[in-house]
Amino acid sequence: MFITNTDKTELIWFGLRQILEQVSGSDRALQLDSGIIKPFDVVRDLGVPLYTELSLKQHITRIASNCFYHLRQLRQIRRVVGEYVTSQLISAFVLSRLDYCNSLLAGLPRTSVEPLQRVQNAAGRLVRNLGLRDHVKPALKQQHWLPVEHRIKYKLCTMMHQIYTGHAPQYLAHSVQSVAEFNRRPGLRSADTADYIKRRTPTKFGTLLQSRWSSCLEFLTFLP
Questions:
Q1: Final residue belonging to a domain, choices 120, 147, 174
Q2: In 3D, which of 188, 208, 149, 172 has the Cα closest to residue 16?
Q3: What pTM, to 2 d.p., does this model score?
Q4: Do 116 and 98 meet the contact criterion of CB atoms below 8 Å apart?
Q5: What single-letter DSSP state applies at residue 196?
Q6: What is the span of the domain harbouring residue 22?
Q7: What angle is formed at CA 218 by the lines to CA 48 and CA 196, rounded to 5 degrees?
Q8: Counted domains in the chain
C-alpha cells in the first residue's frame, strides 16, 4: 500500500514553457488515495530552488540579495572588529553562501554569475577598507579568494578528483563514465587517459536537465 501525506508532498513538472502550457491543470495534478497533489512552480531541495524551466536567474538573485544584506550589517562594525575579524565573518556569512551548491551554476554564461562576482568584489573592498573607485583585484589576491567563476570550476575539479580516486559516493560516480570503459576504445590511446564524459540522455531537455543537476549530485537526491 502506497501512503503519503499530501500536505507535505510537493510535485513539480520540468519542461520547456511551450510544452508545459499544452498540459492542462487537471492533468498536472497527481491523484492518490489519500488526496490530490497539486503541482508547484518552484520547489526546494536543501535550500536550492528548482523551477519548472530550470532557470537559475531567481536563485542567483536571491543569493546576491542575501549576501549584500550581510555585507551592509558587517560594514557597521568594520572599524570596531578590524580587518582579520571582518574577513572571518565574511567567510562565514558571505563566501559560504557563494560556495553552497555553486556547482549547479557550472556552464552558465559569465553574465549570469556576474551578480555573485559583484558580491565578492564588495566583500573584498570591505575587508581592505577600499573605496568604490579602487581596484579590487589586488585585494582579492591578497585574501587568496578565487573569482566566482573559478570557484565553480574548483568545486567541479574536486568532485571529479574524488570520482577518479574512488572516494565519491556511488550515485555521484554513476553520473559520469570513464572513456576507458567503452568497448570500442581498449586499443586507442584515449583509453589510457583519465577523461570522463557525461552519460547521454535521449532528449535535448534531458541533456539540459542532466547538465544542470549532474554537477550538484552531492546535494540533490533523485527518486528512482
A1: 147
A2: 208
A3: 0.72
A4: yes
A5: E
A6: 1-40
A7: 125
A8: 3
